[in-house]
Amino acid sequence: MYATERQGLIERLLVDEGRVAVVDLSERFGVTTETVRRDLDALEQAGALRRVHGGAVALERASTAEFSVLERSGLRADTKQRIAARALDVLGDAFTGSLYFDAGTTTGAVAELLPSRLSEIRGDAEVVTHSLTLAPALAGADRVALTVVGGRIRGVTAAAVGAATVRSIQSLRPDVVFVGANGLSAGFGLSTPDPEEAAVKEAIVRAARRVVVVADASKFGEESLVSFASLDTLDLLVTDRAPEGELADALADAGVEVWAA
Question: Which of 55, 204, 207, 245 has the most crowded Cβ, counting Cβ within 10 A?
């Protein structure tokens, strides 16, 4: 394959996924990592992407950039389903207790699979969420009692935000929370572009007895505008590929367990 062909495919991957990793591209194209880095350097010089540690991101993925929930719903759908199924293993063989679902498409995938998993293990769950997109998947489901936290709805994520939302979450103590993030890095922890969204996510993490982060590998090394949780506040990361390098070391030092789906 010629360099121009590879670079064209890399640009298409960036449109679809927002981020590419050197190691992944090397395996996909059957070339050395040095060749991939030269491709990425050429594309950056052409103004087609921005280089980051371990790969590259689309130019629009700045610290405040954020896709809407509708735009994200079709991205990496199979990956999110695998992560969701693995994440529900945290319930064990006979769960009865309380769960909180953060807003997001990966947490949404977990919520969609919850009723069938509860039926399998004959469990019951008191579920709370502030997401208008997650609630329909759980409303009326067998073995699920649903509470929706109110507030001002942020259109991009279809989730409640604001002081009232944060106060409501602060009054809770769920057994397990499933939380998502736009970025996950060694030094900055979990992050998201919007300050109000970050305040809600921080309250969720602080309220939880156990924090389960569900995030695919495209979030590794990313740092959005606002950090809402340090790595040492997390218990479990469920992802599609085990982190490597600095992030892997930081997660291990923080005592975060990692499950790869």
Answer: 204
CA 79 to chain centre: 11
**Cβ burial, residue 122 (10 Å; 0-12/13-18/19+):** exposed
d(CA 102, CA 25): 31
Distance separating alpha carbons of residues 28 and 246, to the nearest angstrom: 24
| pTM, rounded to two decimals | 0.76
Nearest Cα neighbor of 19 from 260, 216, 241 is 216
> What is the C-alpha separation between 233 and 100, in angstroms, rounded?
16
Whether 19 contacts 40, CB under 8 Å: no
Q: Could you tell me which residues come within 8 angstroms of residue 26 by beta carbon, excluding any fewer than 6 positions away?
A: 32, 33, 35, 36
- Per-residue model confidence as pLDDT tens digits over 3-41: 888 988 898 888 777 788 899 999 999 999 999 999 999
pLDDT class for 71, splitting at 50, 70, 90?
Answer: very low
Strands 257-260 and 236-239: parallel
Whether 60 has a pLDDT exceeding 70, the answer reads no
DSSP letters for 207-253: H-SSEEEE--GGGBT---SEEEE-GGG--EEEESS---HHHHHHHHH
Predicted confidence (pLDDT) per residue in 141-193, tens digit:
999 999 999 999 988 888 999 999 999 999 999 999 999 999 999 999 999 98
Give all domains of the chain, ordered by start, each with its CATH number: 3-57 (1.10.10.10), 69-260 (3.40.50.1360)
Six-digit token pair at 7? 């670079």
